[in-house]
Design goal:
The chain is an alpha+beta fold. The chain has helices at about 5-10, 35-50, 80-90, 105-115, 115-125, 130-150, 170-180, 180-185, 200-215, 255-260, 270-285, 295-300, 305-315, 325-335, and strands spanning about 15-20, 55-60, 65-70, 95, 100-105, 160-165. The chain is globular.
């Protein structure tokens, strides 16, 4: 039975969620003749991330559904001025042009909203809401897709699903699961070719940063391709883990994903890319028995079982439960909801010796 959103989400507290939304009647969100919509989807997610007190940690735009992993930071809204609230609302909820494309608000309309105290108070609360965050993405896409298809009616399959991620390991595991979706669906061979995913964005940003470092520090290349020979996911010491590689990204940096819940060791960008890359090779090849040894140190730091990790990445429904986390985190969440327990859907990911956190 579906759980009411008010029991899953306390909008006054920072939390992490895996959000999933699917199209009705197996309609295409993207793909086939609707491939151009992938840009629409990413643009809507980017606009929402720039407007709400919500960080996008991972996303994947699939042919008929959408995955987003988010971290809510509701306290941010208190620091925004009335003008900033109005500007953020205008970005998240653009006007619609005749062709369905978003049209910016006028400065006069933004100023009028900023001068309305009651409106600002209401908008401030909505800009910290996960439900309004997803609404701003889905509603505009539905209207534009229906106009594109020349039809009316529902485009999305009811409300979106939001699965609370209760601990650090759950957040990282879900991010990797989302980033690996195109490979699991045989739509991509490697993370760097997984179009319209957060892992591709991170890889491209890191590669650009590394190429820039090569150009700034190395002698002039002897051939046009020399500057392109930059390793993809191999760690290069502390200098490789500075903020620089993700500085230009609109999604949240790995640091935001690894410290948001504050109870686990931080993993670096290179370690996360290694985790996705090595896992993806096995998931794409279907070799459940082959466990890349380079994953072991990363997963041990997250207190996760190595063999269960691979089983989980193959298991399509694991991140669709009512909550995801270790036994202690699930017990606390059950108490908060007034439930007796929350079923473990992790394929034994945490093992039997995971410490209570």
């Amino acid at each position: 039975m579906p759980i009411a959103r008010k029991h899953q989400v306390d909008e006054a507290l920072p939390s992490c969620f895996h959000c999933i939304s699917r199209c009705v009647r197996r309609a295409y969100l993207c793909g086939d003749a609707a491939e151009h919509r992938r840009d629409w989807v990413r643009d809507r997610i980017r606009a929402a991330a720039a407007s709400f007190a919500v960080d996008v940690l991972a996303y994947a735009v699939m042919s008929n559904h959408l995955h987003i992993v988010v971290s809510t930071e509701p306290s941010r809204v208190t620091a925004w001025t009335a003008r900033e609230v109005a500007e953020r609302w205008a970005v998240a909820h653009p006007r619609t042009g005749a062709d369905g494309a978003p049209v910016p608000w006028s400065d006069a309309a933004i100023a009028a909203n900023a001068n309305d105290g009651a409106w600002v108070a209401k908008a401030r609360l909505r800009l910290r809401s996960l439900s309004w965050f997803m609404k701003s993405i889905k509603e505009g896409l539905a209207r534009r897709a229906n106009r594109d298809d020349g039809c009316t009616g529902h485009f999305w399959e009811g409300r979106f699903r939001s699965v609370p991620l209760l601990d650090q390991a759950a957040v990282i595991a879900c991010m990797a699961y989302v980033d690996l979706n195109p490979m699991r669906a045989a739509c991509a061979e490697r993370p760097e070719t997984s179009n319209f995913t957060s892992v591709q964005d991170r890889i491209q940003a890191r590669q650009a940063h590394q190429r820039d470092r090569v150009r700034r520090t190395a002698p002039p290349p002897t051939s046009p391709s020399s500057a392109e020979l930059v390793p993809l996911v191999h760690a290069e010491g502390p200098a490789a883990h500075e903020a620089g590689p993700e500085a230009g990204l609109w999604i949240a940096p790995i640091a935001a994903a690894t410290v948001s819940l504050g109870n686990m060791p931080v993993i670096t960008l290179d370690e996360y890319l290694t985790l996705v890359d090595e896992t993806g090779r096995v998931v794409r090849g279907g070799k459940r028995g082959v466990i890349p040894q380079r994953l072991a140190p990363i997963l041990e730091r997250l207190h996760l079982d190595l063999s269960a990790w691979m089983e989980l990445m193959h298991h399509a429904g694991a991140f669709h439960g009512s909550a995801f986390g270790n036994v202690a985190a699930r017990a606390r969440e059950a108490v908060r909801r007034g439930a007796r327990w929350i079923v473990d859907v992790t394929c034994g990911l945490y093992g039997t010796t995971h410490p209570a956190t």
